[in-house]
Amino acid sequence: MTLKVYLSGEIHTDWRERITEGAGDLDVTFSGPVTDHAASDDCGVAILGAEADKYWHDHKGAMVNAIRTRKGLMEADVVVVRFGEKYKQWNAAFDAGYAAALGKSLIVLHGAEHAHALKEVDAAALAVASEPEQVVAILRYVLSGRLPAGAD
Amino acid sequence: MTLKVYLSGEIHTDWRERITEGAGDLDVTFSGPVTDHAASDDCGVAILGAEADKYWHDHKGAMVNAIRTRKGLMEADVVVVRFGEKYKQWNAAFDAGYAAALGKSLIVLHGAEHAHALKEVDAAALAVASEPEQVVAILRYVLSGRLPAGAD
Amino acid sequence: MTLKVYLSGEIHTDWRERITEGAGDLDVTFSGPVTDHAASDDCGVAILGAEADKYWHDHKGAMVNAIRTRKGLMEADVVVVRFGEKYKQWNAAFDAGYAAALGKSLIVLHGAEHAHALKEVDAAALAVASEPEQVVAILRYVLSGRLPAGAD
Amino acid sequence: MTLKVYLSGEIHTDWRERITEGAGDLDVTFSGPVTDHAASDDCGVAILGAEADKYWHDHKGAMVNAIRTRKGLMEADVVVVRFGEKYKQWNAAFDAGYAAALGKSLIVLHGAEHAHALKEVDAAALAVASEPEQVVAILRYVLSGRLPAGAD
Amino acid sequence: MTLKVYLSGEIHTDWRERITEGAGDLDVTFSGPVTDHAASDDCGVAILGAEADKYWHDHKGAMVNAIRTRKGLMEADVVVVRFGEKYKQWNAAFDAGYAAALGKSLIVLHGAEHAHALKEVDAAALAVASEPEQVVAILRYVLSGRLPAGAD
Amino acid sequence: MTLKVYLSGEIHTDWRERITEGAGDLDVTFSGPVTDHAASDDCGVAILGAEADKYWHDHKGAMVNAIRTRKGLMEADVVVVRFGEKYKQWNAAFDAGYAAALGKSLIVLHGAEHAHALKEVDAAALAVASEPEQVVAILRYVLSGRLPAGAD
Amino acid sequence: MTLKVYLSGEIHTDWRERITEGAGDLDVTFSGPVTDHAASDDCGVAILGAEADKYWHDHKGAMVNAIRTRKGLMEADVVVVRFGEKYKQWNAAFDAGYAAALGKSLIVLHGAEHAHALKEVDAAALAVASEPEQVVAILRYVLSGRLPAGAD
Amino acid sequence: MTLKVYLSGEIHTDWRERITEGAGDLDVTFSGPVTDHAASDDCGVAILGAEADKYWHDHKGAMVNAIRTRKGLMEADVVVVRFGEKYKQWNAAFDAGYAAALGKSLIVLHGAEHAHALKEVDAAALAVASEPEQVVAILRYVLSGRLPAGAD
């Protein structure tokens, strides 16, 4: 059994690396958005031509990025959505809703301080974690049935 | 043709009333979440029993509220999602993602100051408006083909 | 908004009546299986001809009953599944799984003594209640946003 | 043709081994739930943190287990559900309902003493067997067209 | 509960009348193909222009008829397929397969002499009847839970 | 049986009126795009604000119009697509493809001179007509089984 | 591009071999029912236990065979259905209807003498052939764009 | 991540080669229609027999071609539709509508002179390009996150 996991959300910390490295020995394939912030913002105009209006500049980029994110979300077995400390992160919540409507297994990753604001998102999830290593432990358990050492 | 419209998001201003009243002469049925903030937060424990842990208190409420919101979203032709000035509003973005994945016609309603942060959400929308009256004008046009007086 | 509610499971107590009567003032339509135990067991052979073998006797009845139960489940917004004190009640759990796979809002109704054995079923539910009156309160809240008197 | 087979239900006897070993020469891949009872019960709290309340302890585990079981059920061609001698086994019946709603080919495995109680589940199945070796014979026939030696 | 019933197959006997009249007191709506044999054969060329080639004459008619039959099949809760004494009746079996793939409740109506030839069709059905009155009895039971008088 | 019919395509002749008037006695409901060419082109900017760039002017209008056309197409039983003498009419062909992918019954209406260029579109249709009155005759036949007078 | 082709219908002539051998150089995988007539009839009772009643003997076999045929039909890109000279062949027409409802590309293979009786089945097909070699030529063309030598 | 890309539309220029060669180093698989115009027009009659009537000659070919194009469209992640200088190209717009209804990521490729006529098609797209090399750049960015050299 190979698990296909999509890692959505916050791009300013190393949480993706902590998951992909922690799960390095597991039968998992990861996908996610482009995490180069500048490239992600500018991809539309860089490829398809400049826009005078900032709104359409952003729009063209968001549309091109959607080619990647929709494929990743649609093919995933598990969608992990990380909410960090800063920014509105509405795209993370959007991805969570999108994944929920597709019937994906959703894991939400956030600190306790966001629990109340994220209660509707968490309510659609099969697991709510605070640390990336917990996500790794879930993937390991789902694939092998093994719990973390010392967990008993 | 009757349009079924779901009004998602911010609950602290009168935008819902401005839409439902403005569209009073149209063949539209509206639905939306429970907008009584206290009832919405407490419905789970009020009906199903108290929880010592705030997380589960919130969780039970969010699950009960989902009975209403999922039905509204699934039955809607058009989903309007409003982002206001305050709070994280992740549930609004979650609803937008959910609606997008279901193939609903999405209208996003927010001020220009949120345009960059909402670019992925806007990219999934068929219209991005800043005022509730614009949503009314869209509904009127969709149903009747008539544009606002003076619009030409 | 009309809620379509399917009442599945235990047929030996008055829980269905307590719900349908309690919700008498609400915009709800109820459906459910045939609750006349003898008719339900014998409908296949009574209509389509006797069977020498008890297995096929039961089978013909279960198939005819499925015409009704599948329609009820597929058209429902909310599926309430009641587990009682006696019998295996595998058909109730089957209906719960069927409803979950269809993405229905699931409410499970059982006593605390069954909580551990039903944890996988409860995990697919949006609400777990112990009394029929709680189901009524949920339906009332979902439709009107009103909580039970004294709940605060 | 590779058959993907999910083995659901009872975890206290060796029926899974009898099937996987008996089908060792066939083009079949098997999946199933975690069958380590203690790990399965505790996986939620072991990974995501302890719960004071037994209900939420169970709930967190059931949710994490659902990541595995939903994937197995959704990807399967054939779902085999075993009902044993003991316990309520509502999760087995839940899986059978879930599989039926997804249109999976369902094989139910149980002793004759449960036939009446399982008649609704059996009615959704393409085969009802009493011994694991019969399941192996079905898989062999489906893949190769060969019947058991002496079967004529 | 209103049952939508599609009556497919043989058009040379009065079985449809026996069902629609027998079910005259029930909350059932019936649909079915055009049963005027000549009109059904010629509708394509009569409306869309003559064809020199008999094959295309037939084809144009079959396509126009499909507008009606697909709608009837897709909207039905229950599809009754009748196999009579004469002709190949491949369109009846085609409709049965179409209905089965759509997950409709299928009732097959035929004499015992066709049982072996129809075993794959019957295997997809929830009921196999030999007389139209049995179909009426099923519809009555499904809607009301009442069995035929004298059936006990 | 009520037929829901969507009338897509060319907006410069009276073909829609010829169909809706011809079918005035039938149980049919019609929908279609906004056929006021100027309003259709300008609806986006008239409601949501002017655009300096003609491309985005058009884009905003096309998106708003999609709210109406997608609903009409998705709810229709029958989609009639008319190709006229002038213009590229790519939106008509787009609607035909959209309808085909949704499994709608497609009727294509065009003159013989376009037959070769439309062969892929026609291949997805259940009927290809050249006059609006033929569409009316099809709707009448589908609903009532009656062929045009003199057709035999 | 690999084409997955399901070969349904008549089992008394060598048409399957003529197709699979003719397509031996193409990127095609074939599946189909068990074509050993005796095994196909008896598989149910041979594996799951004898039945006194011939109807249930047949039924058990048809159900077990459905595990194979449903998988083959559901996974196919192209479903070829062959109608031969003899027997009712209702299972072939059933498979054609099943494939049509799933949106599969359907090729029907039959002699001209059956054209009228099969007009509804042919109307759901993308090709109607009379010889297995034509099916091979279609598969070759679909994969490579090459027409048969001499075809011009 | 492998992207499956379907290249639909105009067959008279080298745009397909410019894309497939430009993307030669990427993890992309391409599919598309048969681009040999004569073979594409005649495939139906060449394989299945001549037709006296040009309409049916075309029809048989369009149906056979649909076996290939439907598979390509249904399996694609990204559908690129090219509109060229000449011809009606209704099949290109049909494919765009088909892809849109299936929820595929749509890229439209056309010169600025067609922008107004294609506004409804463009409105369903995630990117609108004028040069094949822009499509290559999009595919490269989607797979690797890298923008074209000099794009900043």
From TrEMBL, chains A, B, C, D, E, F, G, H:
Pfam families the UniProt entry points to: Nuc_deoxyri_tr3
Domain of life the protein comes from: Bacteria
Entry protein name: YtoQ family protein
Taxonomic source organism: Rhodobaculum claviforme
